[in-house]
Amino acid sequence: MMHSHTLILEVMLALHAAGEVPFRASDVYRVLQQRGAPYKEKSIRTSVYGQTLTLKGGEVIALERTGRGTYQVADPDTARAALQAAQQSG
Question: For 69, how many CA atoms within 13 A lie in the half-sphere containing its CB?
């Protein structure tokens, strides 16, 4: 099973690539639900509002609050590289 923050970051980067930036926790939750991921909305909100995601390898990815209830990945390129490394490590 994929580490939970890894999947959440994957969704955030997909939203970023689709031009849906900044995003809300509800946007991340919606995409996860569409993918059939078994997450509760409260856990997604906690992850987004915490403004950091810790990947399986220990890499910490920062989120920026851009406005009331809206966020974006602080450094998408670094996050993409960290996500790829985490996915390759299994």
Answer: 6
